[in-house]
Design brief:
Elements lengths: L2 E5 L3 H12 L3 E5 L3 H10 L15 E4 L2 H5 L4 E4 L6 H8 L8 E4 L12 H9 L6 E5 L4 H5 L4 E7 L2 H10 L5 E6 L2 H23 L4 H21 L10 H12 L4 H10 L4 H7 L6 H14 L5 H12 L3 H9 L9
């Protein structure tokens, strides 16, 4: 039986542990708090992050990183992206030398502008062929309800991607393989920023034309950045690009969309943070995505607008007017 460690007992980490167990894996979830691990083991639920969903028997939990990592063929990392470097530095000494490191995180590191796979390679001293990414339109509560969903499993080594695909393939969860790690990661990170923008538009009471325009032009921004970084443009029309963007921008289950909606309704950044129970990755990653774009000389006006609203306090209405008044240009540029 395939052994898998899941580092992170939040909603997505818990839901992905369910997928793995349903696919026949033996799964150990690491949780930062002992009480969360105890609840998973004794009640078969995660009441703090995914209440109301019974976990399969193949899932157990621990607060001991070494216990979680023992003999793991795959080590799944699902913590807030800005904490990955510090956390992984603590865990690296206990990870099996041949384990495949799997990122579920959708962010870009502040300061370095590195993608999560790059941080993993650097901190764990792992070759790119041993680092994989799972991404796509995967809202945790729907997955926990075993509603049908698809995803992308990306790794530079196609055989590793196929192994991971088999480890998380269930009757309700259909993963596809891809070797374009750069494109898959960028799709997941930038869609959170566009999700904030669409949420802000919703909060302002704007219509479907506005939201469709933001989504489409947001995807254009993502693709421009991806091309500059060597990604396959076809990736962005698939599950890791458009698929994930649709789910994030249209669902009330999306943390980034909800966060943006509160901002659009007039709440301050601090007020919105106070009512948000879990991490909305786009709030911090919008700055690092913009940093990444500038390093590659890529124009990303929607991303820049989100940074202005979220971190510079620019009123959404003013930011919208400035965005709409930019000089006219051809669509494919």
């Amino acid at each position: 039986m395939t052994r898998v460690a899941v580092f992170g007992a939040g909603s997505w980490g818990t839901a992905f542990a369910m997928i793995l167990a349903d696919a026949g894996c033996e799964v150990t979830v690491w949780g930062r708090r002992q009480e969360v691990a105890d609840a998973i083991n004794t009640t078969r639920t995660n009441p703090d992050y995914l209440p109301g969903f019974e976990l399969p028997d193949g899932v157990r939990a621990t607060a001991d990183p070494a216990e979680a990592a023992r003999d793991a063929e795959f080590t799944v990392l699902t913590v807030p992206s800005q904490t990955l470097r510090e956390n992984l530095a603590d865990w690296a000494p206990v990870l099996p030398s041949d384990t495949v490191l799997v990122s579920l995180m959708k962010g870009v590191e502040l300061g370095t502008a590195k993608r999560m796979s790059e941080v993993i390679e650097e901190v764990a001293k792992a070759p790119a062929e041993r680092v994989a990414v799972v991404t796509g339109p995967n809202l945790a509560k729907e997955i926990a309800g075993r509603m049908p969903a698809a995803a992308v499993v990306a790794c530079r080594d196609e055989e590793v991607a196929r192994r991971l695909q088999a480890a998380c393939h269930t009757p309700y969860y259909r993963p596809y393989t891809n070797t374009d790690v750069i494109g898959c990661e960028l799709g997941g990170a930038v869609k959170n920023v566009i999700g904030l923008a669409v949420g802000i538009a919703d909060g302002m009471g704007l219509g479907d034309n506005t939201k469709a325009s933001l989504m489409t032009r947001g995807l254009a921004e993502t693709t421009r950045l991806g091309l500059a970084m060597g990604a396959d443009p076809h990736t962005f029309s698939g599950l890791a690009g458009m698929g994930d963007l649709i789910a994030t921008c249209s669902s009330p289950l999306s943390r980034n969309h909800t966060f943006g909606t509160n901002l659009g309704r007039g709440m301050t950044l601090q007020e919105t943070i106070a009512v948000t129970k879990q991490t909305a990755e786009g709030v911090k990653s919008c700055e690092s995505v913009l940093d990444l774009a500038r390093r590659h000389d890529v124009d990303m006006p929607i991303t820049e607008t989100v940074v202005d609203i979220v971190h510079s306090g620019k009123p959404p209405l003013v930011a919208l007017r400035e965005l709409m008044s930019r000089s006219a240009k051809p669509e494919r540029r």
